[in-house]
Amino acid sequence: MNGDFQSSYATEALVPRATAGTSTSDAAVASVLKQYWGYDSLRPLQAEAIRAGASGRDSLVVLPTGGGKSLCYQIPPMVCNRVDVVVSPLISLMKDQVDGLRENGYPAVALHSAQEGSANREIMREIGEGKYRLVFVAPERLLHPAFLALCERARVGAFAIDEAHCISQWGHDFRKDYRQLARLREVFPNASINAFTATATPRVREDIVGQLRLRDPAILVGHFDRPNLTYRVRPKLDVEGQTLRTIRRHRDQAVIVYCLSRKETERMAAFLKENQVRAAHYHAGMEAKDRQETQERFLNEQLDVIVATVAFGMGIDRGDVRCVIHTSLPKSVEHYQQETGRAGRDGLPAECVLFYSAGDAIRNEELIRLSAENANDPETVIEGGMQLLRAMRHYCDLPACRHARLVEYFGQTLAHSNCKACDVCLGETKPADDATELARKVLSCVARVQQRFGLGHVRDVLLGKNTKVIRDLGHDKLTTHGLLKTMNADVLTQVMYQLVDQGLLKRTPGDRPILQLSENGLRAMKGERRVLLSIPQAAPTTSEAPSRDAGEALSESESGLFEALRGLRRGMAEMRKVPPFVIFPDTVLIELARSRPTTIEAFGAIRGVGARKRDAFGREFTALIRDYCDTHGLSHGNGRAPEPEEGDEEEIVRPRQSSKLNPQKERALEMLMQGAAIEDVAHQTDRAISTVGGYLAELAYRNPTLDLTPWVPADLQHAITEATIQVPDGRLTAIFEKLQGRANFEQIRVVLARWRAVAMREGG
Ligand code: ADP
Question: Is residue 63 lining ligand 1, measured as CB closer than 6 Å?
Fold first, then answer.
């Protein structure tokens, strides 16, 4: 694989041939898009990909993570009224997608080994009856005779191969199971095959086309820049502290921290937990059950930070990851692109920080050598690995726009010269003004010590250290001794490694590498060659996390509403046993906080709310928005003046005294006094469940003798009290977690309100 930064690949972007005879119109696509997803327009290349899919043409669609590949295979079977099959490598990915589609009212199903045989048989029967438009299967199941027969019967129109790079051993995630997909073409000569991947190297692309035997495919390659990501490379110094400080810029947000080894993930997670971060480690050495549980807790927002080896990530569909941290150097730019790709999939701003030390690069080199030991041709394997690693180090070392470097690696260019979203363009890492002079000093010191010493020694001489070794060797008498004595040792180390990476210095192989000058190094030393070096400045000055929303920032009260909507989403997800992002991504919640629709119709017009979700969630969400607006003096999105009502949604635990009630609230309180269930009250008064929970909390607060058993059985009241004692800061989510699902948020709020009231009386 050509992994060199300097190379430029020809980027294919072949527009599909005219799709004469297409049975689908753009209007049909637009209508399906609006009805099921609530979107008004397609993104670049989605239209072409959908057209190819609907017209029965093979295709290879390469779009970066978050680029919107799923819609490209979800829409065609719907508009063509046929059954398509999606091959997906991981059960968790399938489950999330099917859950998401079903919430949208889209008939999809998955067949996998985690389901009972009887359930799968029932599903197969339903598929045969044409109940579904999309069937997800694992690759090993696809060529099963029973499934093949079913595909025949159901007249499957197209096979979508998700994560298609898994078929290529040049990709970063080769899977043997995927190899069998090569047979699809002969088994179903009449069905089209549409391959999807985020991996962009031409070699992998060619391999996919060849292996799947695609016929005259439409090759659609999107742009690889991710403008919503801010990339930073920082020198690795005190990596635990640096990681913690970075995470603190993303309080209560989802963060992934990648470490090189399993041990490191455990150590880092323990450190973060000691510092009150809701973190857990994840690696391939854990029991499958524990891994699964950790992943689910992260998906369900019970964990903010996951500290993982690269074993973690592929099954992760959480779109609101706001930060990805690398505590060590990735193996290649492809890996880096893939791993950072998990940040900001929802299109909102996110940050990717890489803590770089040249020492890590050496560790990686050792790992490459070790892994090549059993290979047939170790030299080639080592050279391949080293080439990829060199490109990655180049990315870290060169003081050039990170966005530009990344897209150049994939053979593309950036339209503008300052991305305003990387440490270099933001001025946090600067090219050294005197780089050529600085390089000459280092290079001449290597020459002065006769090219017989390693990096540490040369550095110590340059720093002017007065050690016994230096004195014994007489190196304290060299003209280069102390030449860079004002420089920070870590920065100097980085500089020296940059000279190695740029080929000006060579390191001899073996355990104790010695620094030597290359031809180019000699020329640079003589001042015949210009050198570029980057010097990291102080830690990011933009200490705030990037704001959540891409457009105009939310006001304080709108942010409060966003948080309240997030809470409601979590509650609904919990009830439905799906991850919160399946209900709505953050983009929709932000739009809701900004537009504040209070009618079902206005709610349904929000981008990302399809017809099904409008009907399923409209009442709850609009009720919450109405209440929130009324209590916070925000105007309703439909322009209606806020109704005067007290009872702060966010202050449910310590409710305000109501001075004036609106009739609905009065009615709700009356019903509650008679012991009515929260759901019934919500239904009858057109209020959100969380709002009615708030009313109940208010009642309990004002009236500590109120019998709470209609809503919270006595033993549960005890359990909540116990859990509250164990959570000193009284955070609802922490109490909720402690109770492991035994109580819902409303129940906890009510019991807390009562205890607060008792405490107030006793204290006062
Ligand atoms: P990929 O599979 O390429 O990583 P997804 O298909 O998961 O990306 O899409 C990423 C996000 O973008 C999802 O939340 C999806 O609903 C959203 N999305 C996709 N297409 C559109 C569109 N045309 N308009 C608005 N949002 C879209």
Answer: yes
C-alpha closest to that of 731 among 240, 251, 323: 251
Residue among 113, 89, 59 nearest 162 (CA): 89
Q: How far is the CA of 40 from the centre of ligand 1 (A)?
A: 13
Q: How far is the CA of 68 from the centre of ligand 1 (A)?
A: 4
CATH superfamily of 556-761: HRDC domain (1.10.150.80)
Mode of pairing for the β-strands spanning 429-431 and 534-536: antiparallel
Tens-place pLDDT, residues 446-497: 999 999 999 999 999 999 999 999 999 999 999 999 999 999 887 888 889 8
Distance (angstroms) between ligand 1 centre and the Cα of 26 equals 19
Is any atom of ligand 1 closer than 6 Å to the C-beta of 39?
yes
pTM of the model: 0.69
Task: Please give the distance, rounded to the nearest whole angstrom, from the Cα atom of residue 259 to the centre of ligand 1.
Answer: 28
Ligand 1 pocket: which of 32, 34, 39 to mutate (most atoms within 8 A of CB): 39
Q: pLDDT for 555-587, tens place per residue?
A: 877 888 888 898 889 888 888 888 888 899 999
Cα angle 70-82-17, degrees, rounded to a multiple of 5: 65
CATH architecture of 26-221: 3-Layer(aba) Sandwich (3.40)
Fold classification of 229-422 is Rossmann fold (3.40.50)
Q: Which helix (H) or strand (E) holds 435?
A: helix 435-448
Determine the pLDDT at residue 533.
87
Q: Which residues pair with 543 in a beta bridge?
A: none
> What is the residue with the minimal CA distance to atom 17 of ligand 1?
68
The CATH T-level fold of domain 433-532 is: Arc Repressor Mutant, subunit A (1.10.10)
